[in-house]
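**User:** My hope is that you can spare some time for a protein that puzzles me. I have put the entry right below:
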Amino acid sequence: MQTKITLGYLGFLPFATLTILPWILGETYEEISFQLLVVYGGIIISFLSGIIWGLDSTNQKNLVLAIVFSLLGFGAILLAWINLIYAMTLLFFLFFLFYLLESKINPQFTNPDYLKLRKNLTSAVCGCYMFSIVILIY
């Protein structure tokens, strides 16, 4: 479990870095930083969707949901070059909804350490997207 915790938090670092990078480097890097935040998020939501395939490949509904999450993650990446706010909003909801889905079907959620890890990571990632959206709006 310790490896999952370590890798999970290391995987969060790009979210945090890309969220605060415009503050460090200036507004010049805001757009590219947030576009990369969307690209990374789209990749990660697709990666997380793969978890569903490993849990129960006989449940067609869950497999379809996993593909939908992956495709919407890809759609968010494409949307980032049209409207960053919409793309980040989409990913905010995808991460939140994926957490809800996984909590219902992943037996690892009975492990308090895994539950804490996923709750912390999902909250932090959603927080990064909310913070970035606010920066773009104002």
About this structure: The two ends are 41 Å apart (CA to CA).
